[in-house]
Amino acid sequence: MKLLIKKLRKGAAIPARVTDGSAGYDLSACLEGPLVIKAGETAKIPTGISAAVEGIDNCVLLIYARSSTATKKGLAPANCVGVVDSDYRGEILVALRNHSGEERVIDPGERIAQLVITPVYTPEVCETEELPETQRGAGGFGSTGKM
After folding, report:
1. d(CA 90, CA 99)
2. Does 31 map to a domain?
3. Residue 128 located in a structural domain
4. Domain range for residue 8?
5. Domain-embedded: residue 101
6. Where are the beta strands (DSSP E) in the chain?
7. Is 136 exposed, middle or buried, given 0-12, 13-18 or 19+ CB atoms closer than 10 A?
8. What angle do CA 16, 21, 22 make, to 5 degrees?
9. What are residue 113's phi and psi, to 5 degrees?
């Protein structure tokens, strides 16, 4: 299996795992200068790359927050987890939301999110009158009580 990366802009960085145990590949901002994201606002940050996974069918690229960017700067993907479908070949953008109470600056080349490759299951959809019973049943939020 290979993660194929195509650079679309000058200054684009190839995503990389920092350690052997890293689940995600860091995505970097491909900017010509610093970008200010005001408190409570969202900005679409270009990465300057497109991607494809070779050698495996039915997978998705998921964009997650970098823990340090989210906890220290209050910047996380606006949609919580970004989805890059396996057939998308355009530029990967990261929509970062500033959850802090202050302006935040993204510098060119700064690591802004992480890309995780995950299998996708696409079962046949079948309408039914009944579902298999479980211990929980239809119990919703808080139905399992405190542990």
Report:
1. 27
2. yes
3. no
4. 2-119
5. yes
6. 2-7, 25-28, 35-37, 42-46, 49-54, 59-65, 75-77, 82-84, 93-98, 104-106, 111-119
7. exposed
8. 40
9. -165, 175
- Chain segment 19-53, per-residue pLDDT in tens: 999 999 999 999 999 999 999 999 999 999 999 99
Does residue 130 sit within a domain?
Answer: no
Angle at the Cα of 20 from the Cα atoms of 15 and 25, rounded to 5 degrees = 20
What are phi and psi for residue 110, nearest 5 degrees? -70, 140
3-state secondary structure of 69: helix
The per-residue pLDDT for range 123-144, each reduced to its tens digit, is 999 999 999 998 887 777 776 7
Indicate the number of domains in the chain: 1
Domain holding 14: CATH number? 2.70.40.10
CA distance 32 to 93: 15
